[in-house]
Amino acid sequence: MTARNLNEIVETIRAAKRVVLVTHTFPDGDALGSQLGLGHILRDMGKEIILYGEEEISYLYDFLPCCTHMVKEPPGPEAVDC
Hints:
Elements: H1 3-15, E1 18-22, H2 29-44, E2 48-52
Parallel strand pairs: 1-2
């Protein structure tokens, strides 16, 4: 990744108003923690966040904040900026 690519990514995120965050299938704690942590950062930046995951989250991760906010239907591309 070049500095130019990184700058483009940062600018895309800064300009976005509604962001969908996705993790891999059957996410483990690291994947969920990363998704939720980035969601908190972006929410603090004033972004509307959609947390998407295909599967039920294991009860083992019930202690993680916002796990209950995960949606199982992906938003259409017209519904998000990024």
